[in-house]
Design a protein that fits this description.
The chain is mainly alpha-helical. Helix content is 70%, strand content 0%. It has eight helices and no strands. The longest helix is centred in the first third of the chain and has 34 residues.
Length: 263
């Protein structure tokens, strides 16, 4: 009110300069007070607008943005620490299911059988090409067919048991030596080699079929054994045609009656 009164006195002093001074006193006072009130209202409104602008500019949402930006990495770090790592889940390898429990003897049998089977196929192919007699050629062809089938079965068994098979045969020197022969000399040397190989094979497969520890390996040996025995008997007949069996029958001595003397 002091400000209003002071402004009113200022307006009264300058009022004679305006036509409104000719208006009767009560109207002059009315209009002067009205002008004074409007002037102060404008000043007051301007002040309010200025205060509002200052408040609006002073309360910018910079702090929430800073909080959001500061909380975002923390949230990401929490998610990173809580997310399970891909290596947390246990992996089961094929060898963890008991395949590595194969005994050393069974494993050795599989390896040696694979090497012998590859040798029989390679030497059989050589015999079917370089053999002189038809019997040798046919025997070599049978070796290729039978042992190829056996080798495939052995390969499946080795994969099941986690055994890595050798890629080469054990008779490379024998193959090189036979490759230099020809004619009947080749036939004789090849048949003698087959006789030695199959005697060893039959003995090894018999031992595995009877004393093997793994049931699957034992079953494989027992299944292939009759075929190997046939190969052995056939090569024996080729090496010694018309020969008698190795087993000789036992003969029982016969007693001759002694003549009785008559008196």
């Amino acid at each position: 009110m002091q400000i209003i009164e002071a402004n009113l006195e200022m307006i009264v002093t300058i009022a004679p300069n305006y036509p409104i001074a000719t208006v009767p006193g009560f109207k002059i006072q009315f209009y002067l007070r009205r002008a004074l009130i409007m002037s102060n209202f404008k000043i007051f409104s301007t002040a309010l607008v200025a205060i509002a602008l200052s408040v609006a500019t002073g309360c910018t949402p910079t702090t929430p943005r800073d909080q959001n930006t500061s909380e975002a990495p923390a949230a990401q770090s929490v998610q990173a620490t809580e997310s399970p790592s891909p290596t947390a889940s246990p992996t089961v390898s094929p060898t963890a299911s008991g395949q590595n429990n194969l005994s050393s003897s069974d494993r050795q049998f599989i390896t040696e059988a694979a090497q012998g089977g590859l040798a029989e196929v390679q030497l059989g192919q050589l015999a079917s090409q370089r053999g002189t007699s038809n019997a040798v050629k046919q025997y070599g062809q049978r070796m290729v067919e039978d042992h190829t089938q056996v080798n495939e079965q052995l390969k499946q068994l080795a994969t099941q048991k986690g055994v890595t098979l050798p890629t080469g045969s054990k008779n490379q020197q024998v193959k090189q030596r036979l490759s230099k022969l020809s004619g009947t000399n080749f036939d004789r040397q090849y048949l003698n080699q087959m006789l030695q190989d199959h005697e060893k094979d039959v003995a090894a497969f018999q031992t595995e079929a009877q004393q093997g520890q793994d049931p699957d390996v034992k079953a494989f040996a027992a299944q292939v054994l009759p075929t190997l025995q046939e190969h052995l008997e056939q090569v024996r007949s080729l090496v010694n045609p018309g020969g008698t069996s190795t087993s000789t029958p036992t003969s029982t001595p016969t007693s001759t009656p002694t003549p009785t003397s008559t008196p």
